[in-house]
Amino acid sequence: DELEKISDGQLEKTVEDVEVYARVSPEHKSRIVRLLRKKGHVVAVTGDGVNDAPALKDAHIGVAMGIKGTDVAKEASEMVLTDDNFATIVKTVEEGRNIYDNIRKFIRYLLSANFDEIFVIATAILIGLPLPFLPIQILWINLLTDGLPALALGFDTNDKELMKRKPRNPREGIMHRMLPFIIAAGVLQAAISLALFSLELKETGSVEKARTIVFSTAVIFELLFVLNCRSEDKPIWRVNPFSNKLLIISILIGLLLQIAVVYMPFFNTLLKTVPLDLTDWMIITGLSA
Questions:
Q1: pTM (2 decimals)?
Q2: Cys bridge to 176: 145, 170, 172, 180, which one at CB 3.0-4.6 A?
Q3: Which residues pair with 178 in a beta bridge?
Q4: Backbone angles phi and psi of 239, in degrees to 5
């Protein structure tokens, strides 16, 4: 009865403070939802009957019961609980957050790695150096690093603090706060690659050896760098590397394949690489890390 008498202006002032509404009509439910949305809240409504349908439709997320719910309620909803259990909503939110996180990890990794390659090639051309990577080597880098490690990120496990976070802003783009990380990683690796390439050319005069060293540095860097893309707010040593066994396996496969590329005659001919000694590998590993 009170809801019938009160105006929208008056209800808007108290809608955030009221915890229980009793014996409300379908129109009242919709009215409450609209006013909460007007106040800037993200509103979810649960329901199972025909009288819940208007509020389910007006909410950001309508949640209908799959067993007891009517067809009208299900049609008006964005989510249907097949087990009619509210705890499933929590599990769904957790799974959704984890999927979104993994998509961001994948994007951060791929863009950082590819930005590095573009920057190296462009800078080398501008300053008159020979190409640090041949086209076939760039294809190999992308096949090795954009393949298994990037896919393994998609199967990364949930962060234990995932459900303690505040909900993200729905207007926030998927690239939110990502660009500085991508640019920093790309520029750092590109600067090291170009410096190493220049020094090797001066010291040995062999373009093939200089390319092999820089090529291997890029691969090892990206295989290690994938570990740094697993968390946006934790340093690498605070994230358990063995919680994603697929990622560890993919990194080990990548390392073995790169060693094969450096030492097997077939790959030497195909990818224009030359064998490296232990000192070269120490330099590569140190700079990649």
A1: 0.82
A2: 172
A3: none
A4: -115, 120
Per-residue pLDDT reduced to its tens digit, 160-184:
888 998 888 888 899 998 999 999 9
Q: How far is CA 164 from CA 89, 94, 98, in A?
A: 15, 10, 13
CA dist 243 → 95, 106, 240 (Å) = 17, 17, 6
| CA atoms lying within 13 Å on the CB side of residue 69 | 25
The C-alpha atoms of residue 91 and residue 76 are separated, in whole angstroms, by: 22
Cβ-in-10-Å burial (0-12, 13-18, 19+) of 162 comes to middle
- Token pair of 61, please? 């997320």
Helix spans in the chain (H)? 2-5, 8-14, 26-38, 53-58, 71-76, 87-126, 135-145, 148-153, 179-204, 207-228, 245-263, 265-271, 278-288
Strand partners, 61: 44
Burial class (CB in 10 A: 0-12, 13-18, 19+), 198: middle
